[in-house]
Amino acid sequence: MRTSGLAMCLSAAFGCAPVVAQEPAVAETQVAETTVQAETETPPQQPTAETETPDTPATEKPATETPKTATESADEAKIAEEPAYVRVHEVDGKPNALQTATVQFVGQPGTRYDGAIVDLVGVVHIGQNEYYTELKEQLSKYDSVLYELVAPDGTRIRPEDLEERRSILASVQTGMKDMLNLEYQLEKIDYMAENFRHADMSPDEFVEDLEKRGDSVWKMIARMLGAGIASQAKTGGDAGLLMAMFSGEDRPKNMKRAMARQLVDIELVTAGMDDANGENTLIKGRNRKAFEILKEELDAGKENIAVFYGAGHLPDMAERLENDFGMKAVQTTWSDAWDLTRN
Question: Which keywords describe this protein according to UniProt (predicted)?
Answer without folding.
Answer: Signal
